[in-house]
């Protein structure tokens, strides 16, 4: 586990995006292709911007999956994560080898099976993730399921999670925020060779502290990242402000 603390979110994003691009290039060089997971939401803006700006990536050799999608909203909805990735990433890079997006429309159980079958054929080289204000990883709210081997699952969204989505401006009212979603499972995320975790902003400070200082527990879902063989945390001074000095001194790079 490595922790990098930047002075502002743009520096955080530049560092995280550069690290992700390095992993993508290495995978292409070693295997002829790279398989990636992209997260969405406000925490990923700068990281994705940097990834797009990076040179020397043959995007025609990249296969992309994404973490989660609300159940019951269309791709045209402002909060749709499919829309987010299409507008903020896929339309700004050359065509990928493949991009597998989750649909929140139709039967969620069938959709989980479809994307689960796909990802089992594509071992992930690098996953870009964030941490929710409630400590969730993807949409695995506490207490998260640490046991299921199913790659994509249907989950219920707790109120703190839904309030975060409202606070970030994706919805006009709490009542509009869906109560369920399709999410990549914890164990599937942890199968990634490298995990890049970008977490800017003071509102994430307690979640970051719990992730890095509480016992690894499904009540602090993102804490499981500490048990990964190559997880790199990219924080800014605001999201890191509650960390104990010993944690920062021991792990910061």
Q: Strand order, biggest sheet?
A: 1-10-9-6-2-3-5
Distance between the termini: 10 Å
What class do helices, strands and sheet pairing give?
alpha/beta
Q: Using the coordinates shown, work out and report the CATH topology.
A: Rossmann fold
- Number of helices, where a helix is a run of at least 4 consecutive DSSP H or I residues: 8
By DSSP, the count of extended strands is 10
Helix fraction, binned, reads: 25-40%
SSE order: EHEHEEHEHEEHEHEHEH
Radius of gyration, taken over Cα atoms and rounded to an integer in Å: 17 Å
How many domain regions? 1
In CATH, the architecture is 3-Layer(aba) Sandwich
* Proportion of beta-strand residues: 15-25%
**CATH hierarchy class name:** Alpha Beta
Low-confidence stretches: none
Gross morphology? globular
Overall pLDDT metric: 95
What can be said about the biggest beta sheet?
7 strands, parallel
Task: Please describe the topology of this protein.
Layout: E1 2-6, H1 9-31, E2 34-38, H2 45-53, E3 62-66, E4 68-70, H3 81-88, E5 98-100, H4 108-119, E6 126-129, E7 152-156, H5 159-167, E8 180-184, H6 186-190, E9 194-199, H7 205-213, E10 231-236, H8 245-251
Parallel strand pairs: 1-10, 2-3, 2-6, 3-5, 6-9, 9-10
Antiparallel strand pairs: 4-8, 7-8
Helix pairs in contact: 1-2
Descriptors:
single chain; Rossmann fold; 8 helices; 253 residues; alpha/beta; globular; 10 strands; three-stranded antiparallel β-sheet
């Amino acid at each position: 586990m490595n922790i990098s603390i930047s002075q502002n979110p743009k520096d955080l994003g530049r560092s995280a995006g550069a690290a992700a691009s390095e992993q993508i290039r290495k995978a292409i060089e070693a295997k002829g292709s790279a398989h990636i997971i992209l997260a969405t939401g406000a925490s990923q803006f700068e990281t994705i911007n940097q990834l797009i700006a990076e040179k020397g990536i043959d995007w025609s050799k990249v296969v992309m999956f994404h973490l989660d999608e609300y159940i019951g909203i269309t791709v045209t909805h402002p909060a749709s994560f499919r829309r987010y990735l299409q507008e903020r990433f896929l339309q700004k890079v050359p065509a990928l080898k493949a991009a597998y997006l989750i649909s929140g429309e139709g039967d969620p159980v069938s959709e989980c099976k479809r994307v689960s079958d796909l990802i089992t054929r594509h071992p992930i080289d690098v996953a870009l993730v964030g941490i929710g204000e409630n400590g969730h990883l993807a949409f695995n709210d506490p207490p998260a399921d640490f046991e299921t081997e199913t790659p994509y699952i249907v989950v219920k969204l707790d109120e703190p999670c839904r309030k975060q989505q409202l606070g970030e401006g994706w919805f006009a009212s709490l009542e509009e925020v869906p109560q369920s979603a399709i999410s990549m499972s914890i164990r599937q995320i942890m199968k990634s060779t490298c995990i890049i975790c970008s977490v800017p902003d003071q509102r994430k400070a307690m979640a970051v502290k719990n992730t890095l200082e509480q016992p690894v527990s499904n009540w602090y879902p993102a804490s499981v990242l500490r048990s990964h063989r190559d997880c790199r945390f990219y924080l800014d001074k605001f999201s890191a402000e509650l960390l104990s000095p010993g944690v920062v001194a021991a792990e910061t790079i």
